[in-house]
């Protein structure tokens, strides 16, 4: 509904490979929306450490078993990982490797999120 009304949306999801990204890209293109991808390029060990320290996921407190499942999922995701490319129909790809770069990405897209996707963005 929001895309149909010309609003921008954010898909906060890993989308580790082309197949996972394809339906979201197709949906955006169907409504004339630009597709902007943010890649958080973090060392695998940093991800493991963060997952081990995570207490809540999707609003629910994690058990030890659930934390272990997240760690297994990280390994599976790393094996599937395909870097996004413009040939997929993506209009803009930004990569952040540090916290400062992540904050810069947030600043860059914050204004765009307030605009309708039918308006020209810089």
From TrEMBL:
InterPro entries: P-loop_NTPase. Gene3D superfamilies: P-loop containing nucleotide triphosphate hydrolases. This is Uncharacterized protein. It comes from Perkinsus olseni (Perkinsus atlanticus).
């Amino acid at each position: 509904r929001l895309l149909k009304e010309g609003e921008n949306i954010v898909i906060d999801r890993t989308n580790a490979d082309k197949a996972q990204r394809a339906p979201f890209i197709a949906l955006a293109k169907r409504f004339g929306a630009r597709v902007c991808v943010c890649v958080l390029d973090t060392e695998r060990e940093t991800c493991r450490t963060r997952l081990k320290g995570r207490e809540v996921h999707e609003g629910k407190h994690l058990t030890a078993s659930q934390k272990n499942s997240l760690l297994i999922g990280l390994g599976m995701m790393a094996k599937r990982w395909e870097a996004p490319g413009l040939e997929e129909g993506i209009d803009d790809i930004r990569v952040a490797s540090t916290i400062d770069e992540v904050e810069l990405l947030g600043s860059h897209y914050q204004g765009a999120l307030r605009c309708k996707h039918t308006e020209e963005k810089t």
